[in-house]
From TrEMBL:
Main location: membrane
Topology in the lipid bilayer: Multi-pass membrane protein
TM helices/strands, residue ranges: 24-45, 57-80, 92-110, 119-140, 171-188, 220-239, 245-264, 271-292, 298-317
Naturally occurring in which organism (per UniProt): Cupriavidus numazuensis
The protein's name: Branched-chain amino acid ABC transporter permease
Localization of this protein: Cell membrane
Keywords: Cell membrane, Membrane, Transmembrane, Transmembrane helix
Length: 371
């Protein structure tokens, strides 16, 4: 039944460009999809490890700038007569490089900052995002600074010996974003349901207990940071080739806040939460724009967030799941996948029982032999 529902949803999403002919709304769906991918990547870190990153937009922007510069090319002076010259590459190479560079930055930040926790980690991530923004703003020879990188080539797919597909239109870009979203969902789902994912959840639930049973905190948190940053970088690279112009404003703090809102209101620590939150808060401003002015839009937007947090503190997806369970006569509350600690505890319990039975059997045998 679940597989049938998933196929139905995917089929419905694939059919959207066939019946939605308004290019503006298709543009809204594309940008909403890109930021939903960013929210999904943030959820891997915030929802499944419990680490709040308020500098997540830095990885998004790094992916965008890296991919744009790879496809545009650059000629940058270093010192004296030494220059770095790069010829334009294919957009696919740009997306791959942007994803890899964002993942590398996630690894470095994870290695350096996961030795600290709480507010200190938040400060490190915010500071990193601000440093990257200042670099993009002031390194004019490379990034054009406030003048922005423009005329970024659109995504292009070459079929050897057949044709070349250049994605100028919105429909091909929609399918490209949808494909990346499905890949991101599949990767996150596989990670969460693996041994590594259970370890990450265990760290979120009780870090001290997780450490006591042998879970390497830095290793698993760094892995989560790398995957989260890489997916955010891929989303940023896709954004650059779709919008075709980027400037330092891509690092604005409001974009990170938007991703956090999507994760928390949808249901952090759930696979569907960021998707539901992303769709709602991606389309809500568009719906409000047709009936209210800018000031009223922000007021309604804020009230809606407060109501969700107040009445649905665990998010929309867990609340809907619990409601459906009650409706169908099942009283089980929504729970995250079983933590790694539970598996270890169960194994330890089974081992203890087996040891006790063996010991009792041995004692009984000795007693009979003595008789």
């Amino acid at each position: 039944m679940k597989n049938l529902s998933a196929y139905f949803v995917i089929g419905a999403l694939l059919s959207v460009p066939l019946w939605l002919h308004d290019q503006y709304f298709l543009h809204v769906l594309i940008t909403t999809g890109i930021f939903t991918i960013g929210a999904m990547s943030l959820n891997l870190l915030l929802g499944f490890t419990g680490q709040l990153s308020l500098g997540h937009v830095a990885f998004f922007g790094i992916g965008a700038y890296a991919s744009a510069l790879t496809t545009l090319g650059f000629d940058v002076p270093l010192f004296g007569d030494v220059r770095i010259v790069h010829e334009p590459w294919h957009p696919v190479a740009g997306i791959l490089i942007g994803t890899a560079l964002a993942g590398l930055c996630g690894y470095l930040i994870g290695k350096l900052s996961f030795k600290i926790r709480g507010a200190y980690f938040v400060i490190v991530t915010v500071s990193f995002a601000e440093v990257v923004r200042l670099v993009a703003l002031n390194w004019v020879d490379l990034t054009q600074g406030p003048l922005a990188l423009n005329n970024i080539p659109p995504m292009r797919i070459d079929i050897p010996g057949v044709s070349e597909i250049v994605m100028w239109q919105k429909a091909p870009n929609y399918y490209l974003v949808l494909a990346l979203a499905l890949v991101a969902y599949y990767l996150i789902r596989r990670i969460v349901r693996s041994r590594m994912g259970r370890a990450m959840i265990a760290l979120r639930e009780n870090e001290s207990l997780a450490t006591s049973v042998g879970i390497d905190v830095t290793r698993y948190l760094t892995f989560a940071a790398v995957m989260s940053a890489a997916l955010a970088g891929a989303a940023g690279a896709l954004y650059a080739h779709y919008i075709r112009i980027i400037d330092p404003d891509i690092f604005l703090f409001i974009y990170t806040v938007t991703m956090v809102i999507m994760v928390v209101t949808g249901g952090k620590g759930t696979l569907a939460g960021p998707i539901v939150g992303g769709i709602i808060f991606g389309l809500l401003p568009v719906g409000l724009r047709t009936v209210a002015g800018p000031e009223v839009q922000w007021i309604v937007y804020g009230i809606f967030i407060v109501l969700i947090v107040f009445f649905l503190p665990r998010g929309i997806v867990p609340a809907v799941h619990d409601w459906w369970q009650r409706r169908t006569g099942k009283q089980a509350r929504y729970v995250a996948p079983a933590p790694f600690l539970a598996t270890r505890a169960s194994a330890a319990h089974v081992g203890t029982d087996a040891f006790a039975k063996a010991r009792d059997s041995k004692n009984s045998g000795n007693a009979v032999s003595r008789k």
